[in-house]
Design goal:
The complex is a heterodimer of chains A (203) and B (389). With 203 residues, chain A is mainly alpha-helical. Chain A has four helices and no strands. Chain B is α/β, with parallel strands linked by helices and 389 residues long. Chain B has two domains: 216 residues, Glycogen Phosphorylase B (Rossmann fold, 3-Layer(aba) Sandwich), CATH 3.40.50.2000; 159 residues, Rossmann fold (3-Layer(aba) Sandwich). Chain B contains 15 helices and 14 strands. In chain B, the strands form three sheets. Chain B has an eight-stranded mixed sheet with strand order 3-4-2-1-5-6-7-8, sandwiched between helices. Chain B has a three-stranded parallel sheet with strand order 9-10-11, sandwiched between helices. In chain B, helix 5 crosses helix 6 and helix 12 packs across helix 14. Chain B starts with a strand and ends with a helix. Classes of the chains: A mainly alpha (203), B alpha/beta (389).
Chain lengths: 203, 389
């Protein structure tokens, strides 16, 4: 990798890629790895038993092997892929457990938050209901006032009507009186003239 | 502006690339005062289009969502068989219409609603060229319409009916220059408005505390893949390359985050974390040696943007042009086309921390300059201005 030259003050991606591609072309092709994770291991039947080992073993080793014989199934278990799988599963389970704990905590937190929100929403709703009830009372009072006002208006209307009628009658009466006065004035004038004529005749 | 979006799926739980793209754009535009309505289906799963959301209207982050039921679920096996046949054999237009029908999500109610309510909107924006509602919806809408193709080089792009899809809109919103170039080979955009826009990225708060490693029991160095874990996204190849690399360079871990859609080999150095909260994902990205983007089919790759915004360089699939463009334009990552190139690039990042830091900083600057939300919204404003005129 050391032969890839980079100008850090002026990074040139195409140039870096060219160097990578040239280097990749010079490398030998590698096969893809196997898909399974099992480590390469011999089947249990192929593992040599302590008895089958050559007799040239030193004494301390033979004693050690004899001492360990009761534990041979456990040792086999540790050597075989079962152990590897077991460790892997334990590892996976550990992480799953951690994630489950995390989700549990999250769910609990969300539930607490949700119940808090629900409580405050219901409180807000109660307040709103009280306000609405109060408003309804006020509205019914206003409606009563409105009914009264309407009655007053009706009365005022009929009063106005009566006044107009009376005023019209009075106007007619006035006209009649005016005519009578004019007739009386004329009568008076005639009587005056009669009076003057009679006076002339008399004196 | 009254903007209507048409997209195959929509919702908080829907994490697909173009669907999330649509949601982020709609929400941001709604936040800037536009009246945004989304026409979508009740489906959550893109494989079956099974009706899962309730039909009707809901509001999510300021955008009104109108969901319509999907007429029939997709039989993926039969669809795949039909696709294999149609892509390999001579066929008629009727066969292609049949293919579109099988592709789905078939939603005649959605199309009817678009037709009825078209007058209520200033313009329509369709997301993803590939689906039934886009094909028929573009025909239904007579007024102003734009298409966000989110296309990558795939066989469906070469069907004859796609000419109808790409000739209908007056405007196009591409994710990358590479996407536009690729589409330009097949379709003509002469006299039409087009812009490279993409989607914005939020810059996460800079947390110094390293809790991710402790929480998930992962020690550095590790490389991270975030997204759908499936062979179609190049994940099998990634795992093979990683195992080859680890034979000669032990001590590295591969961390996978997202929905698992394939079998993973049980190597202790490959760790699958499932779905993690966004802050954990950001922390995982921030502390990764590099993030890997192995997909062959990408038009933008939001995961790469998220990685660059936390100053972690990217190592991407060399055969995916939009991903390569990120590396080249931002000087913020490398690519691989073989296991040897993968190993060499990874070794370089592992050995050369200075290069990694410089590339991380370059990536951050690249995102700030090209994919900040202000820039994205500004580009959409220009698009609206064009369509209004």
């Amino acid at each position: 990798m050391t032969d890839i030259k980079i100008d850090y003050d002026n990074i040139d991606v195409p140039d870096i890629m060219k160097q990578i591609q040239a280097k990749a072309a010079s490398l030998p092709k590698k096969p893809l790895p196997p898909k399974k994770t099992e480590p390469p291991s011999k089947p249990a039947s192929q593992l040599p038993e302590p008895e089958q080992l050559p007799m040239v073993l030193p004494k301390w080793r033979r004693i050690l092997l004899k001492l360990m014989k009761p534990f041979s199934p456990l040792i086999k278990l540790l050597i075989l892929p079962v152990h590897h799988d077991l460790m892997q599963t334990v590892h996976n389970l550990y992480h799953v457990n951690k994630r489950l704990d995390y989700f549990n905590t999250k769910i609990e937190q969300s539930l607490i938050k949700l119940s808090g929100e629900l409580y405050s929403t219901s409180e807000r709703l109660d307040l709103k209901i009280d306000m609405v009830n109060e408003r309804q009372d006020q509205i019914s009072l206003r409606l009563e006032d409105l009914d009264k006002t309407m009655e007053y208006v009706k009365t005022l209307h009929s009063l106005c009507h009566n006044i107009v009628v009376e005023l019209t009658k009075l106007k007619i009466e006035e006209e009649r009186t005016k005519v009578k006065i004019r007739i009386m004035e004329k009568d008076f004038e005639f009587l005056n003239r009669k009076e003057r004529a009679l006076e002339k005749k008399a004196f | 502006m009254k903007v209507a979006f048409v997209v195959q799926r929509y919702g908080k739980e829907v994490m697909g690339g173009s669907e999330l793209h649509c949601r982020l754009v709609a929400e941001r535009l709604a936040a800037t005062g536009h009246d945004c309505t989304v026409y979508t289906t009740t489906a959550k799963d893109y494989v079956t289009w099974k009706n899962e959301y309730p039909a009707g209207e809901t509001i999510l982050s300021g955008a009104l969502i109108k969901r319509f039921r999907v007429d029939k679920e997709r039989d993926i096996d039969s669809f795949n068989k039909y696709s294999d046949w149609i892509f390999a054999n001579k066929h008629s237009r009727e066969h292609e219409i049949e293919w579109m029908e099988r592709q789905g999500p078939c939603c005649p109610d959605l199309l009817e609603a678009i037709g009825k309510e078209e007058q209520d909107y200033d313009l329509f924006i369709f997301f993803t060229y590939l689906y039934y509602n886009t094909y028929w919806g573009l025909k239904k809408v007579k007024g102003k319409k734009a298409l966000v193709p989110t296309a990558h080089n795939e066989p469906a792009l070469y069907l004859d009916i796609m000419q109808e899809v790409f000739s209908a809109p007056q405007a196009f919103v591409f994710n990358t220059e590479a996407e536009k170039t690729m589409l330009n080979r097949q379709f003509t955009f002469k006299g039409k408005y087009s812009d490279i826009v993409g989607v914005g990225v939020d810059i996460p708060a800079d947390k110094k505390e390293l809790v991710f490693s402790r929480k998930y029991g992962i020690e550095r160095p590790y490389i991270l893949y975030a997204g759908r874990i499936e062979p179609g996204k190049g994940c099998q190849e990634l795992i093979d390359y990683f195992l080859l690399y680890n034979q000669d360079n032990p001590g590295m871990k591969l961390v996978l985050i997202g929905k698992l859609l394939m079998d993973l080999p049980s190597y202790p150095d490959i760790r699958y974390l499932g779905f993690v909260p966004p802050e954990d994902k950001n922390a995982a990205m921030r502390h990764a040696l590099v993030t890997i983007h192995s997909s062959y089919l990408e038009s933008l790759c939001m995961a790469a943007q998220e990685s660059l915004v936390v100053r972690t360089p990217i190592l991407v699939q060399g055969k995916t042009e939009p991903l390569k463009q990120h590396c080249l334009k931002g000087n913020c990552g490398l690519w691989y086309s073989s296991s040897k190139e993968f190993a060499l690039a990874l070794s370089l990042f592992r050995r050369d921390n200075r290069l990694r830091k410089i590339m991380g900083e370059n990536g951050y600057q690249y995102i700030q300059q090209n994919y900040s939300w202000e820039k994205i919204i500004d580009k959409y404003r220009k698009l609206f201005g064009f369509l209004k005129s």
